[in-house]
Amino acid sequence: MNLHDAPIRSKIRFVILMTCSLALLFACGVLFAFQFYFFRKDFRSDVSSFAATLASRLPPSIDFENKERATEILAGLGVKPHFTGALVVTNDGVEFARYRTVNIDIFKPIPAGTTLREEGQYLVSIEPIQTRGDRLGTLYVIADYGTQASRLQNLYLAISCGVLTVSLLVALLISRKLATVVTGPLEQLAATVGEIAGSNDYSLRADKKSDDEVGQFTDSFNEMIERIQGRDAALRHEIAERERAERELQSLHAQLITASHQAGMAEVATGVLHNVGNVLNSVNVSATLVTDKLSIHRLNNLVRTAEMLRDKNGDLGEFLLNDPKGKLIPGYLCNLSKHLAAERQEALVELELLTKNIEHIKEIVSMQQNYARVAGIVENLPPEALVEDALRMTTGSLQRHHIEVVREYTCSAHVTAERHKALQILVNMIRNSKHAMDEVSPSTKILKLRIHESAPGFVAISIIDNGVGIAPDNLTKIFSHGFTTRKDGHGFGLHSAALAAQQMGGRISVHSDGEGLGATFSLELPMVQAEGAAV
Predict the structure, then answer these.
(1) Given this structure, which CATH class describes domain 3-180?
(2) 3-state secondary structure of 476
(3) pLDDT exceeds 60 at position 199
(4) Whether the Cβ atoms of residue 171 and residue 69 lie closer than 8 Å to each other
(5) What is the pTM of this model?
(6) Assigned CATH for 379-526
């Protein structure tokens, strides 16, 4: 039958069906395209943000070579099934940690600014691992994009087909029932919809004209608007609650920052007390040596000699020339003067060391008092001067324990550092090495101090001992707060030293072949070029 000759009701039905079909097809297509677009965008954003979060947590593990901790951090990817693996690679291209199977070419060139790379059905997020501007390595996070996209595509197609089918059936039924007298009620309903859309006033309702299908549709529309009104009120209430929660979160965050700052200051104070205690040990030793020297009463014999000479005042010449005791007096006085001069020189050396130690304590305390107000002064310093100052601080203790000091200075480049922070770190490392050699035979105690160029742009000061060594399990924990293997230790010294080194743009590392095989602690500081600019 020709459509032009069909009854008007059939034409209306045909127009309604065709319009509904085309509109639904277009809507489903647009919806599918937008959903797929936002899925792709959100998927890439989720992978990038998750990778960035993991990369921000990895620097301490790489700094302290804690591969187990790095693997634990990567295992956090397991909370999302679309992550298939992760890999941490250091700057020299060596694998540091891995999570699950990773089949990617890490040596494939990466264009500048690239953080996401597609490889087949997988999406690879590439994030640099940095600390204080220094790149420690690269994090590769792999996500199965293809499988997720395929599942979503099949789901959207199924939903679209289902919606299209159901909608066409509904449109067919409606077209049969409402082909005659729908224009008026629908116009009134459309006006109500436009008014609600323009004013966002969900208290408006459409007038019901009849109890037929249009009337039922009007009832359904009004019921829907009522639900929307209820949900709008609930949403407004939820927004208000979220704003209140955000204000509380900001308040808690401020409290957390304050507590963290106080904890950091307490940690600094603990490190200062530790260093003051180290210097006080040297002060005590120097004071004891001076006291011992002064307590040797060689002057008693000198007094008796003077009294003897006074008693022989009348025949002093005869006494010195012919009396056996008198003949010994000139030689005795000469030897006594030499002994007194030597003891005086030793006392002066100890007093000079004592003065330096007291001055160092004053500087440590002064630095603590100004810690929260004034940043440390960074200087260009010769590393050998720092090492020699640290040795002077500890020379008395090293001599008492019969420790031989060997110097190996092969690099003369200056470094940028805060003088007293660097000195505190070196004193702490030297004293730790001394304690490590307490159980070694006196004839074999050797402490090597080596200055050499390490990584490009860095000078390393290494303290090498042949003491008790460090167990492999403790190498990754030795710089942790509170960790110590000594019965009388408190675990603050090396932790504070590591923090101080990072604040100066350097780092501390440790190496030991095992228990009984000694240990090497190295402080690396930024090198200074000849013209005085840091590398």
Answers:
(1) alpha beta
(2) coil
(3) yes
(4) no
(5) 0.37
(6) 3.30.565.10
